[in-house]
Protein backbone atom coordinates (compact mmCIF):
# COMPACT_ATOMS: atom_id res chain seq x y z
CA UNK A 1 0.00 0.00 0.00
CA UNK A 2 1.43 3.36 -1.05
CA UNK A 3 1.91 5.92 1.68
CA UNK A 4 1.32 9.64 1.22
CA UNK A 5 4.50 11.73 1.24
CA UNK A 6 5.39 13.27 4.56
CA UNK A 7 6.03 17.02 4.04
CA UNK A 8 7.74 17.30 7.40
CA UNK A 9 10.00 14.37 6.64
CA UNK A 10 10.88 15.80 3.25
CA UNK A 11 11.69 19.15 4.83
CA UNK A 12 13.88 17.49 7.44
CA UNK A 13 15.66 15.48 4.76
CA UNK A 14 16.35 18.56 2.66
CA UNK A 15 17.54 20.48 5.71
CA UNK A 16 19.87 17.62 6.67
CA UNK A 17 21.24 17.49 3.12
CA UNK A 18 21.81 21.24 3.05
CA UNK A 19 23.56 21.19 6.45
CA UNK A 20 25.74 18.29 5.37
CA UNK A 21 26.80 20.05 2.19
CA UNK A 22 27.51 23.25 4.08
CA UNK A 23 29.71 21.33 6.51
CA UNK A 24 31.60 19.82 3.61
CA UNK A 25 31.94 23.20 1.93
CA UNK A 26 29.88 22.13 -1.07
CA UNK A 27 27.26 24.75 -1.89
CA UNK A 28 24.23 23.65 -3.81
CA UNK A 29 24.79 24.97 -7.32
CA UNK A 30 22.66 24.90 -10.39
CA UNK A 31 24.49 22.98 -13.06
CA UNK A 32 24.21 24.02 -16.68
CA UNK A 33 24.52 21.69 -19.62
CA UNK A 34 27.67 21.88 -21.76
CA UNK A 35 27.31 23.93 -24.91
CA UNK A 36 28.76 23.22 -28.35
CA UNK A 37 30.37 26.15 -30.13
CA UNK A 38 31.87 26.44 -33.61
CA UNK A 39 35.10 28.45 -33.62
CA UNK A 40 37.82 29.30 -36.12
CA UNK A 41 41.37 28.78 -34.92
CA UNK A 42 44.57 30.22 -36.34
CA UNK A 43 47.40 27.67 -36.27
CA UNK A 44 50.99 28.78 -35.84
CA UNK A 45 52.28 30.32 -39.05
CA UNK A 46 48.81 30.93 -40.52
CA UNK A 47 49.34 34.68 -40.90
CA UNK A 48 52.76 34.16 -42.52
CA UNK A 49 51.26 31.67 -44.96
CA UNK A 50 48.48 34.13 -45.76
CA UNK A 51 50.97 36.93 -46.36
CA UNK A 52 53.00 34.71 -48.70
CA UNK A 53 49.84 33.75 -50.57
CA UNK A 54 48.80 37.37 -51.09
CA UNK A 55 52.37 38.35 -51.98
CA UNK A 56 52.43 35.84 -54.82
CA UNK A 57 48.94 36.70 -56.07
CA UNK A 58 48.65 38.60 -59.35
CA UNK A 59 45.83 40.95 -58.39
CA UNK A 60 45.61 42.53 -61.84
CA UNK A 61 44.15 39.23 -63.09
CA UNK A 62 40.91 39.87 -61.19
CA UNK A 63 40.55 43.28 -62.81
CA UNK A 64 41.23 41.94 -66.29
CA UNK A 65 38.64 39.19 -65.83
CA UNK A 66 36.03 41.81 -64.83
CA UNK A 67 36.82 44.15 -67.75
CA UNK A 68 34.65 44.09 -70.85
CA UNK A 69 35.20 46.55 -73.67
CA UNK A 70 37.45 48.75 -71.57
CA UNK A 71 34.86 49.07 -68.77
CA UNK A 72 35.48 47.47 -65.40
CA UNK A 73 32.53 45.70 -63.80
CA UNK A 74 33.07 46.91 -60.24
CA UNK A 75 30.62 44.41 -58.74
CA UNK A 76 32.40 41.46 -60.32
CA UNK A 77 35.85 42.87 -59.58
CA UNK A 78 35.10 43.43 -55.89
CA UNK A 79 33.24 40.14 -55.42
CA UNK A 80 36.09 38.13 -56.96
CA UNK A 81 38.73 39.84 -54.81
CA UNK A 82 36.81 39.48 -51.53
CA UNK A 83 35.84 35.91 -52.41
CA UNK A 84 39.46 35.01 -53.08
CA UNK A 85 40.53 36.55 -49.77
CA UNK A 86 37.87 34.55 -47.90
CA UNK A 87 38.97 31.37 -49.67
CA UNK A 88 42.60 31.93 -48.67
CA UNK A 89 41.54 32.52 -45.06
CA UNK A 90 39.61 29.24 -45.06
CA UNK A 91 42.69 27.43 -46.39
CA UNK A 92 44.98 28.53 -43.55
CA UNK A 93 42.50 28.39 -40.66
CA UNK A 94 40.89 25.43 -38.93
CA UNK A 95 37.23 25.30 -37.90
CA UNK A 96 36.39 23.02 -35.02
CA UNK A 97 33.64 22.39 -32.52
CA UNK A 98 34.47 22.95 -28.86
CA UNK A 99 32.51 22.18 -25.72
CA UNK A 100 32.07 24.93 -23.16
CA UNK A 101 31.14 24.19 -19.55
CA UNK A 102 29.39 27.21 -17.93
CA UNK A 103 30.06 25.98 -14.36
CA UNK A 104 33.65 24.98 -15.00
CA UNK A 105 36.50 26.52 -13.04
CA UNK A 106 38.64 28.82 -15.19
CA UNK A 107 41.83 26.95 -14.29
CA UNK A 108 40.49 23.47 -15.12
CA UNK A 109 41.87 22.08 -18.42
CA UNK A 110 40.77 19.00 -20.32
CA UNK A 111 43.41 16.85 -18.60
CA UNK A 112 41.93 17.51 -15.16
CA UNK A 113 38.41 16.75 -16.40
CA UNK A 114 39.63 13.45 -17.84
CA UNK A 115 41.27 12.51 -14.53
CA UNK A 116 38.06 13.38 -12.70
CA UNK A 117 36.15 10.98 -14.91
CA UNK A 118 38.82 8.31 -14.36
CA UNK A 119 38.62 8.77 -10.59
CA UNK A 120 34.83 8.48 -10.61
CA UNK A 121 35.05 5.34 -12.72
CA UNK A 122 37.56 3.76 -10.32
CA UNK A 123 35.34 4.66 -7.37
CA UNK A 124 32.29 3.04 -8.95
CA UNK A 125 34.16 -0.17 -9.81
CA UNK A 126 35.62 -0.45 -6.30
CA UNK A 127 39.25 -0.69 -7.50
CA UNK A 128 41.06 0.84 -4.52
CA UNK A 129 44.53 0.71 -6.04
CA UNK A 130 43.40 2.46 -9.22
CA UNK A 131 41.49 4.99 -7.11
CA UNK A 132 44.60 5.76 -5.03
CA UNK A 133 46.80 6.27 -8.09
CA UNK A 134 44.19 8.36 -9.87
CA UNK A 135 43.75 10.61 -6.85
CA UNK A 136 47.49 11.20 -6.68
CA UNK A 137 47.63 12.06 -10.38
CA UNK A 138 44.60 14.31 -10.00
CA UNK A 139 46.19 16.25 -7.13
CA UNK A 140 49.37 16.84 -9.13
CA UNK A 141 47.37 17.86 -12.22
CA UNK A 142 45.27 20.32 -10.21
CA UNK A 143 48.36 21.94 -8.68
CA UNK A 144 50.00 22.23 -12.10
CA UNK A 145 46.82 23.61 -13.67
CA UNK A 146 46.46 26.27 -10.98
CA UNK A 147 50.12 27.23 -11.35
CA UNK A 148 49.74 27.56 -15.13
CA UNK A 149 46.55 29.57 -14.68
CA UNK A 150 48.32 31.97 -12.31
CA UNK A 151 51.10 32.47 -14.85
CA UNK A 152 48.56 33.22 -17.56
CA UNK A 153 46.89 35.81 -15.34
CA UNK A 154 50.20 37.52 -14.60
CA UNK A 155 50.87 37.56 -18.34
CA UNK A 156 47.84 39.81 -18.81
CA UNK A 157 49.59 42.55 -16.85
CA UNK A 158 53.02 42.52 -18.48
CA UNK A 159 52.03 45.13 -21.06
CA UNK A 160 50.66 48.01 -18.99
CA UNK A 161 49.47 49.78 -22.13
CA UNK A 162 47.06 47.00 -23.13
CA UNK A 163 44.03 47.80 -20.99
CA UNK A 164 41.94 45.08 -22.65
CA UNK A 165 44.27 42.32 -21.48
CA UNK A 166 44.35 43.89 -18.03
CA UNK A 167 40.57 43.70 -17.83
CA UNK A 168 40.68 40.09 -19.00
CA UNK A 169 43.13 39.36 -16.20
CA UNK A 170 40.85 41.02 -13.67
CA UNK A 171 37.89 39.00 -14.91
CA UNK A 172 39.95 35.83 -14.50
CA UNK A 173 40.99 36.81 -10.95
CA UNK A 174 37.43 37.63 -9.88
CA UNK A 175 35.91 34.72 -11.84
CA UNK A 176 33.65 37.22 -13.58
CA UNK A 177 31.26 35.82 -16.13
CA UNK A 178 29.24 38.09 -18.30
CA UNK A 179 25.55 37.31 -18.30
CA UNK A 180 23.24 38.88 -20.82
CA UNK A 181 19.61 38.14 -21.57
CA UNK A 182 19.22 35.82 -24.52
CA UNK A 183 17.12 36.71 -27.52
CA UNK A 184 13.93 34.90 -28.28
CA UNK A 185 14.34 31.95 -30.62
CA UNK A 186 11.06 32.63 -32.42
CA UNK A 187 11.50 31.93 -36.14
CA UNK A 188 9.41 34.94 -37.19
CA UNK A 189 11.21 37.38 -34.89
CA UNK A 190 14.08 38.20 -37.31
CA UNK A 191 11.65 39.21 -40.06
CA UNK A 192 9.59 41.26 -37.61
CA UNK A 193 12.69 43.08 -36.39
CA UNK A 194 13.93 43.67 -39.93
CA UNK A 195 10.61 45.27 -40.84
CA UNK A 196 10.76 47.33 -37.64
CA UNK A 197 14.24 48.67 -38.37
CA UNK A 198 13.18 49.52 -41.94
CA UNK A 199 9.88 51.12 -40.89
CA UNK A 200 10.94 54.60 -42.03
CA UNK A 201 11.39 53.37 -45.60
CA UNK A 202 7.67 53.61 -46.35
CA UNK A 203 7.58 57.25 -45.23
CA UNK A 204 10.33 58.33 -47.63
CA UNK A 205 8.70 59.42 -50.88
CA UNK A 206 11.71 61.35 -52.19
CA UNK A 207 13.42 59.51 -55.02
CA UNK A 208 17.21 59.41 -54.98
CA UNK A 209 18.65 60.94 -58.13
CA UNK A 210 22.30 61.60 -58.89
CA UNK A 211 23.39 64.92 -60.34
CA UNK A 212 25.46 65.32 -63.47
CA UNK A 213 28.93 66.51 -62.40
CA UNK A 214 30.46 69.50 -64.20
CA UNK A 215 33.43 69.02 -66.48
CA UNK A 216 35.86 70.58 -64.00
CA UNK A 217 34.64 68.40 -61.13
CA UNK A 218 37.60 66.97 -59.23
CA UNK A 219 37.12 63.33 -58.25
CA UNK A 220 38.67 62.23 -54.99
CA UNK A 221 41.67 59.97 -55.59
CA UNK A 222 43.06 57.96 -52.68
CA UNK A 223 46.71 57.08 -52.28
CA UNK A 224 47.95 53.57 -51.56
CA UNK A 225 49.99 54.87 -48.63
CA UNK A 226 46.86 56.27 -46.95
CA UNK A 227 44.95 53.03 -47.54
CA UNK A 228 47.84 51.01 -46.13
CA UNK A 229 48.00 53.22 -43.04
CA UNK A 230 44.26 52.86 -42.48
CA UNK A 231 44.40 49.07 -42.83
CA UNK A 232 47.22 48.89 -40.30
CA UNK A 233 45.06 50.79 -37.82
CA UNK A 234 42.19 48.29 -37.95
CA UNK A 235 41.21 46.82 -34.61
CA UNK A 236 41.88 43.07 -34.97
CA UNK A 237 39.15 42.27 -32.42
CA UNK A 238 36.37 43.87 -34.45
CA UNK A 239 33.68 41.47 -35.59
CA UNK A 240 33.78 40.60 -39.27
CA UNK A 241 31.02 41.76 -41.56
CA UNK A 242 28.91 39.75 -44.01
CA UNK A 243 32.01 39.11 -46.15
CA UNK A 244 33.60 37.17 -43.23
CA UNK A 245 36.94 38.96 -43.63
CA UNK A 246 38.25 39.60 -40.10
CA UNK A 247 40.08 42.74 -39.08
CA UNK A 248 43.11 40.68 -38.11
CA UNK A 249 43.73 39.76 -41.74
CA UNK A 250 43.32 43.35 -42.93
CA UNK A 251 45.80 44.56 -40.33
CA UNK A 252 48.46 41.89 -40.78
CA UNK A 253 48.23 41.78 -44.59
CA UNK A 254 47.95 45.53 -45.20
CA UNK A 255 51.11 45.68 -47.31
CA UNK A 256 49.98 42.87 -49.60
CA UNK A 257 46.46 44.16 -50.25
CA UNK A 258 46.76 47.93 -50.12
CA UNK A 259 47.27 48.29 -53.88
CA UNK A 260 44.28 46.22 -55.00
CA UNK A 261 41.96 47.83 -52.44
CA UNK A 262 43.17 51.29 -53.46
CA UNK A 263 42.31 50.44 -57.06
CA UNK A 264 38.81 49.29 -56.07
CA UNK A 265 38.25 52.40 -53.94
CA UNK A 266 39.31 54.79 -56.70
CA UNK A 267 37.15 53.05 -59.30
CA UNK A 268 34.22 53.33 -56.91
CA UNK A 269 34.82 57.06 -56.38
CA UNK A 270 35.27 57.67 -60.09
CA UNK A 271 32.09 55.80 -61.06
CA UNK A 272 30.17 57.01 -57.95
CA UNK A 273 29.06 53.43 -57.41
CA UNK A 274 29.59 51.33 -54.28
CA UNK A 275 29.70 47.52 -54.63
CA UNK A 276 26.73 45.75 -53.09
CA UNK A 277 28.94 43.54 -50.93
CA UNK A 278 30.31 46.71 -49.29
CA UNK A 279 26.82 48.03 -48.52
CA UNK A 280 25.36 44.77 -47.18
CA UNK A 281 24.50 44.91 -43.47
CA UNK A 282 23.78 42.12 -41.01
CA UNK A 283 22.04 43.28 -37.83
CA UNK A 284 22.64 41.41 -34.58
CA UNK A 285 20.22 42.23 -31.78
CA UNK A 286 20.80 42.40 -28.04
CA UNK A 287 17.89 42.79 -25.58
CA UNK A 288 18.01 46.06 -23.66
CA UNK A 289 16.13 44.57 -20.70
CA UNK A 290 15.86 41.10 -19.14
CA UNK A 291 12.19 41.01 -20.11
CA UNK A 292 11.39 42.02 -23.68
CA UNK A 293 7.92 43.48 -24.16
CA UNK A 294 8.18 45.05 -27.63
CA UNK A 295 10.46 45.22 -30.65
CA UNK A 296 11.91 48.51 -29.44
CA UNK A 297 13.47 46.64 -26.50
CA UNK A 298 16.04 45.11 -28.87
CA UNK A 299 19.23 47.06 -29.48
CA UNK A 300 20.51 46.69 -33.03
CA UNK A 301 24.21 46.15 -33.75
CA UNK A 302 25.01 46.52 -37.44
CA UNK A 303 27.82 44.39 -38.85
CA UNK A 304 29.23 45.79 -42.08
CA UNK A 305 32.30 45.01 -44.12
CA UNK A 306 35.48 46.13 -42.36
CA UNK A 307 36.94 47.00 -45.76
CA UNK A 308 34.05 49.42 -46.29
CA UNK A 309 34.65 50.90 -42.85
CA UNK A 310 38.22 51.70 -43.88
CA UNK A 311 36.91 53.17 -47.13
CA UNK A 312 34.46 55.42 -45.28
CA UNK A 313 37.13 56.52 -42.83
CA UNK A 314 39.31 57.71 -45.71
CA UNK A 315 36.40 59.61 -47.26
CA UNK A 316 35.49 61.12 -43.90
CA UNK A 317 38.98 62.57 -43.51
CA UNK A 318 38.64 64.21 -46.91
CA UNK A 319 35.21 65.65 -46.09
CA UNK A 320 36.53 67.25 -42.90
CA UNK A 321 39.19 69.09 -44.88
CA UNK A 322 36.53 70.55 -47.21
CA UNK A 323 34.28 71.98 -44.50
CA UNK A 324 34.50 75.63 -43.42
CA UNK A 325 36.00 76.03 -39.92
CA UNK A 326 33.17 78.28 -38.72
CA UNK A 327 30.43 75.80 -39.60
CA UNK A 328 27.82 75.57 -36.83
CA UNK A 329 29.86 76.86 -33.85
CA UNK A 330 27.39 75.33 -31.37
CA UNK A 331 27.84 71.82 -32.82
CA UNK A 332 30.71 70.47 -30.73
CA UNK A 333 31.10 67.09 -32.44
CA UNK A 334 33.82 66.73 -35.08
CA UNK A 335 35.34 70.09 -34.21
CA UNK A 336 39.10 70.19 -33.54
CA UNK A 337 39.94 70.28 -29.82
CA UNK A 338 36.25 70.13 -28.86
CA UNK A 339 34.52 67.57 -26.69
CA UNK A 340 31.53 67.14 -24.43
CA UNK A 341 33.35 69.35 -21.90
CA UNK A 342 32.98 72.29 -24.25
CA UNK A 343 29.29 71.61 -24.89
CA UNK A 344 28.52 71.40 -21.16
CA UNK A 345 30.67 74.43 -20.31
CA UNK A 346 29.02 76.52 -23.01
CA UNK A 347 25.55 75.55 -21.81
CA UNK A 348 26.34 76.39 -18.19
CA UNK A 349 28.14 79.61 -19.12
CA UNK A 350 25.15 80.87 -21.08
CA UNK A 351 22.80 80.01 -18.22
CA UNK A 352 24.92 81.44 -15.39
CA UNK A 353 25.73 84.64 -17.27
CA UNK A 354 22.04 85.27 -17.83
CA UNK A 355 21.06 84.38 -14.27
CA UNK A 356 23.35 87.12 -12.94
CA UNK A 357 20.76 89.60 -14.17
CA UNK A 358 17.85 90.50 -11.95
CA UNK A 359 14.49 88.80 -12.49
CA UNK A 360 15.71 86.22 -15.00
CA UNK A 361 15.49 82.47 -15.33
CA UNK A 362 16.51 79.79 -17.82
CA UNK A 363 14.57 76.97 -19.45
CA UNK A 364 16.48 74.06 -20.98
CA UNK A 365 14.81 71.65 -23.37
CA UNK A 366 16.69 68.36 -23.81
CA UNK A 367 15.46 66.87 -27.09
CA UNK A 368 15.40 63.17 -27.88
CA UNK A 369 15.10 61.98 -31.49
CA UNK A 370 13.56 58.65 -32.41
CA UNK A 371 16.15 56.68 -34.41
CA UNK A 372 17.84 59.85 -35.61
CA UNK A 373 20.21 58.19 -38.07
CA UNK A 374 17.53 55.88 -39.51
CA UNK A 375 15.30 58.76 -40.62
CA UNK A 376 17.81 60.61 -42.82
CA UNK A 377 16.49 61.20 -46.33
CA UNK A 378 19.56 60.82 -48.59
CA UNK A 379 18.34 63.28 -51.23
CA UNK A 380 17.86 66.01 -48.60
CA UNK A 381 21.30 65.28 -47.20
CA UNK A 382 22.98 65.56 -50.60
CA UNK A 383 21.40 68.98 -51.08
CA UNK A 384 22.95 70.16 -47.82
CA UNK A 385 26.35 68.73 -48.73
CA UNK A 386 26.31 70.53 -52.07
CA UNK A 387 25.58 73.82 -50.33
CA UNK A 388 28.55 73.19 -48.04
CA UNK A 389 30.90 72.98 -51.01
CA UNK A 390 31.39 69.24 -51.52
CA UNK A 391 31.86 68.38 -55.18
CA UNK A 392 29.15 66.62 -57.16
CA UNK A 393 31.04 63.35 -57.63
CA UNK A 394 31.53 62.90 -53.89
CA UNK A 395 27.88 63.77 -53.22
CA UNK A 396 26.78 61.17 -55.77
CA UNK A 397 29.05 58.59 -54.13
CA UNK A 398 27.54 59.31 -50.70
CA UNK A 399 24.07 59.04 -52.22
CA UNK A 400 24.95 55.61 -53.58
CA UNK A 401 26.31 54.56 -50.18
CA UNK A 402 23.01 55.39 -48.47
CA UNK A 403 20.65 53.89 -51.06
CA UNK A 404 20.06 50.31 -52.10
CA UNK A 405 21.52 48.79 -48.92
CA UNK A 406 20.70 45.07 -48.42
CA UNK A 407 19.83 44.49 -44.77
CA UNK A 408 18.99 41.37 -42.76
CA UNK A 409 18.62 40.46 -39.08
CA UNK A 410 20.42 37.50 -37.56
CA UNK A 411 19.26 35.96 -34.26
CA UNK A 412 20.79 32.68 -33.15
CA UNK A 413 20.41 30.25 -36.03
CA UNK A 414 17.65 32.23 -37.76
CA UNK A 415 18.17 34.91 -40.39
CA UNK A 416 15.50 37.17 -41.79
CA UNK A 417 14.76 37.82 -45.41
CA UNK A 418 16.86 40.54 -47.00
CA UNK A 419 15.32 44.00 -47.23
CA UNK A 420 16.70 46.77 -49.43
CA UNK A 421 16.83 50.06 -47.53
CA UNK A 422 17.29 53.52 -49.06
CA UNK A 423 16.51 55.65 -46.01
CA UNK A 424 18.77 56.55 -43.13
CA UNK A 425 22.45 55.95 -42.46
CA UNK A 426 23.86 52.64 -41.18
CA UNK A 427 24.16 52.44 -37.41
CA UNK A 428 27.77 52.03 -36.31
CA UNK A 429 29.21 53.52 -39.48
CA UNK A 430 32.06 55.99 -38.98
CA UNK A 431 30.48 58.26 -41.59
CA UNK A 432 26.93 58.36 -40.21
CA UNK A 433 27.46 60.76 -37.24
CA UNK A 434 29.33 63.23 -39.45
CA UNK A 435 26.60 63.13 -42.09
CA UNK A 436 23.98 63.78 -39.41
CA UNK A 437 25.86 66.82 -38.12
CA UNK A 438 26.09 68.19 -41.66
CA UNK A 439 22.38 67.59 -42.19
CA UNK A 440 21.51 69.57 -39.05
CA UNK A 441 24.08 72.34 -39.40
CA UNK A 442 21.39 74.88 -40.33
CA UNK A 443 19.36 74.11 -37.21
CA UNK A 444 20.16 77.36 -35.41
CA UNK A 445 18.25 79.63 -33.07
CA UNK A 446 16.21 82.39 -34.69
CA UNK A 447 16.09 84.56 -31.54
CA UNK A 448 19.15 86.02 -29.86
CA UNK A 449 17.82 85.01 -26.44
CA UNK A 450 17.86 81.33 -27.39
CA UNK A 451 20.71 78.96 -28.18
CA UNK A 452 20.70 75.43 -29.61
CA UNK A 453 23.60 73.36 -28.27
CA UNK A 454 24.38 70.19 -30.22
CA UNK A 455 26.70 67.23 -29.90
CA UNK A 456 25.87 65.00 -32.88
CA UNK A 457 22.20 64.10 -32.21
CA UNK A 458 22.12 65.34 -28.59
CA UNK A 459 20.29 68.65 -28.94
CA UNK A 460 19.50 71.15 -26.18
CA UNK A 461 17.53 74.38 -26.50
CA UNK A 462 18.63 76.97 -23.93
CA UNK A 463 16.11 79.75 -23.45
CA UNK A 464 17.38 82.86 -21.63
CA UNK A 465 14.18 84.41 -20.35
CA UNK A 466 13.53 87.72 -18.63
CA UNK A 467 9.77 87.78 -18.20
CA UNK A 468 8.30 86.95 -21.59
CA UNK A 469 8.56 83.33 -22.78
CA UNK A 470 7.07 83.96 -26.20
CA UNK A 471 10.45 83.90 -27.99
CA UNK A 472 11.39 80.63 -26.31
CA UNK A 473 8.09 78.95 -27.12
CA UNK A 474 8.21 80.20 -30.69
CA UNK A 475 11.73 78.78 -30.96
CA UNK A 476 10.48 75.37 -29.90
CA UNK A 477 7.62 75.51 -32.41
CA UNK A 478 10.03 76.40 -35.20
CA UNK A 479 12.32 73.56 -34.17
CA UNK A 480 9.43 71.10 -34.31
CA UNK A 481 8.55 72.37 -37.79
CA UNK A 482 12.18 72.11 -38.88
CA UNK A 483 12.31 68.50 -37.69
CA UNK A 484 9.17 67.68 -39.65
CA UNK A 485 10.61 69.14 -42.85
CA UNK A 486 13.87 67.20 -42.36
CA UNK A 487 12.13 63.91 -41.53
CA UNK A 488 13.34 63.85 -37.92
CA UNK A 489 10.95 62.49 -35.31
CA UNK A 490 10.82 63.93 -31.80
CA UNK A 491 10.27 61.46 -28.99
CA UNK A 492 8.09 63.58 -26.73
CA UNK A 493 8.03 60.98 -23.96
CA UNK A 494 11.83 61.08 -23.63
CA UNK A 495 12.17 64.81 -24.29
CA UNK A 496 12.57 66.59 -20.94
CA UNK A 497 12.72 70.17 -19.74
CA UNK A 498 14.48 71.70 -16.75
CA UNK A 499 13.84 75.18 -15.37
CA UNK A 500 16.59 77.05 -13.51
CA UNK A 501 14.93 79.80 -11.52
CA UNK A 502 16.59 81.52 -8.55
CA UNK A 503 14.02 84.31 -8.13
CA UNK A 504 12.55 84.77 -4.69
CA UNK A 505 8.98 84.86 -5.93
CA UNK A 506 9.08 81.65 -7.91
CA UNK A 507 6.06 80.75 -9.95
CA UNK A 508 4.80 77.52 -11.42
CA UNK A 509 6.01 77.22 -14.97
CA UNK A 510 3.57 75.89 -17.51
CA UNK A 511 5.00 72.97 -19.49
CA UNK A 512 5.68 73.04 -23.19
CA UNK A 513 3.36 71.26 -25.59
CA UNK A 514 4.81 69.32 -28.53
CA UNK A 515 2.46 67.50 -30.89
CA UNK A 516 -0.34 67.86 -28.39
CA UNK A 517 1.63 66.27 -25.53
CA UNK A 518 3.09 68.07 -22.53
CA UNK A 519 6.84 67.90 -21.96
CA UNK A 520 7.75 66.73 -18.48
CA UNK A 521 9.58 69.25 -16.28
CA UNK A 522 12.24 67.49 -14.22
CA UNK A 523 14.52 68.53 -11.36
CA UNK A 524 17.73 66.96 -12.68
CA UNK A 525 19.02 65.32 -15.82
CA UNK A 526 22.07 63.47 -17.10
CA UNK A 527 23.44 65.68 -19.86
CA UNK A 528 26.34 64.27 -21.90
CA UNK A 529 27.44 62.12 -18.96
CA UNK A 530 27.12 64.83 -16.28
CA UNK A 531 24.25 65.11 -13.79
CA UNK A 532 22.87 68.66 -13.75
CA UNK A 533 20.37 69.73 -11.08
CA UNK A 534 17.87 72.57 -11.32
CA UNK A 535 19.71 74.47 -8.56
CA UNK A 536 23.02 73.95 -10.42
CA UNK A 537 24.63 72.15 -7.49
CA UNK A 538 26.89 69.17 -8.06
CA UNK A 539 26.15 66.86 -5.14
CA UNK A 540 24.17 64.47 -7.33
CA UNK A 541 26.95 64.34 -9.89
CA UNK A 542 29.58 63.85 -7.19
CA UNK A 543 27.63 60.99 -5.64
CA UNK A 544 27.35 59.29 -9.02
CA UNK A 545 31.09 59.64 -9.65
CA UNK A 546 31.92 58.40 -6.16
CA UNK A 547 29.76 55.32 -6.57
CA UNK A 548 31.35 54.40 -9.89
CA UNK A 549 34.87 55.00 -8.59
CA UNK A 550 34.27 52.85 -5.51
CA UNK A 551 33.17 50.00 -7.74
CA UNK A 552 36.47 50.21 -9.60
CA UNK A 553 38.41 50.23 -6.33
CA UNK A 554 37.17 46.69 -5.78
CA UNK A 555 39.14 45.54 -8.82
CA UNK A 556 42.16 47.48 -7.62
CA UNK A 557 42.04 45.56 -4.34
CA UNK A 558 41.81 42.29 -6.24
CA UNK A 559 44.92 43.17 -8.20
CA UNK A 560 46.69 43.99 -4.96
CA UNK A 561 45.69 40.62 -3.54
CA UNK A 562 47.22 39.02 -6.63
CA UNK A 563 50.57 40.62 -5.61
CA UNK A 564 50.93 42.73 -8.73
CA UNK A 565 53.62 45.44 -8.61
CA UNK A 566 52.83 49.08 -7.91
CA UNK A 567 53.48 50.36 -11.48
CA UNK A 568 50.76 48.08 -12.84
CA UNK A 569 48.36 49.11 -10.07
CA UNK A 570 49.09 52.78 -10.78
CA UNK A 571 48.42 52.29 -14.49
CA UNK A 572 45.15 50.56 -13.71
CA UNK A 573 44.18 53.38 -11.35
CA UNK A 574 44.84 56.01 -14.00
CA UNK A 575 42.83 54.19 -16.63
CA UNK A 576 39.83 53.14 -14.54
CA UNK A 577 39.51 55.27 -11.40
CA UNK A 578 41.19 58.55 -12.28
CA UNK A 579 39.40 58.65 -15.63
CA UNK A 580 36.08 58.61 -13.78
CA UNK A 581 37.14 61.28 -11.29
CA UNK A 582 38.39 63.57 -14.06
CA UNK A 583 35.44 63.09 -16.43
CA UNK A 584 34.30 66.62 -17.42
CA UNK A 585 35.94 67.85 -14.22
CA UNK A 586 36.53 71.35 -15.58
CA UNK A 587 32.77 71.90 -15.82
CA UNK A 588 31.76 71.00 -12.28
CA UNK A 589 34.69 70.82 -9.84
CA UNK A 590 35.07 74.59 -9.46
CA UNK A 591 31.54 74.89 -8.02
CA UNK A 592 31.67 71.80 -5.81
CA UNK A 593 31.15 72.17 -2.09
CA UNK A 594 33.94 71.42 0.36
CA UNK A 595 32.10 68.28 1.44
CA UNK A 596 31.91 67.01 -2.15
CA UNK A 597 35.62 67.63 -2.66
CA UNK A 598 36.46 65.73 0.51
CA UNK A 599 34.32 62.84 -0.71
CA UNK A 600 36.25 62.69 -3.97
CA UNK A 601 39.60 63.08 -2.22
CA UNK A 602 38.69 60.14 0.00
CA UNK A 603 38.63 57.96 -3.13
CA UNK A 604 42.15 59.11 -4.01
CA UNK A 605 43.42 58.40 -0.49
CA UNK A 606 41.90 54.93 -0.55
CA UNK A 607 43.65 54.22 -3.84
CA UNK A 608 46.93 55.45 -2.34
CA UNK A 609 46.61 52.98 0.53
CA UNK A 610 45.86 50.12 -1.84
CA UNK A 611 48.71 50.88 -4.25
CA UNK A 612 51.21 52.09 -1.66
CA UNK A 613 52.37 55.16 -3.60
CA UNK A 614 51.52 58.85 -3.58
CA UNK A 615 48.90 59.96 -6.13
CA UNK A 616 47.86 63.43 -7.37
CA UNK A 617 45.06 64.94 -5.32
CA UNK A 618 41.69 65.68 -6.86
CA UNK A 619 42.55 69.39 -6.85
CA UNK A 620 45.78 68.75 -8.75
CA UNK A 621 43.85 66.66 -11.27
CA UNK A 622 41.49 69.59 -11.81
CA UNK A 623 44.34 72.09 -12.24
CA UNK A 624 46.14 69.81 -14.70
CA UNK A 625 43.02 69.35 -16.81
CA UNK A 626 42.36 73.09 -16.87
CA UNK A 627 45.94 73.73 -17.97
CA UNK A 628 45.70 71.19 -20.78
CA UNK A 629 42.37 72.63 -21.90
CA UNK A 630 43.79 76.16 -22.02
CA UNK A 631 46.73 75.00 -24.13
CA UNK A 632 44.43 73.24 -26.61
CA UNK A 633 42.37 76.37 -27.14
From TrEMBL:
GO MF term set: 2-oxoglutarate-dependent dioxygenase activity; methyltransferase activity
Q: Which InterPro entries match?
A: AlkB_hom8_N (IPR015095), DNA/RNA_pol_sf (IPR043502), RT_dom (IPR000477)
- Reverse transcriptase domain residues are 267-519
Q: Which domain of life is it from?
A: Eukaryota
Species name for this entry? Electrophorus voltai
Give the protein name, as stated in the record: Reverse transcriptase domain-containing protein
Q: What Pfam families does the database record attribute to this sequence?
A: ALKBH8_N, RVT_1
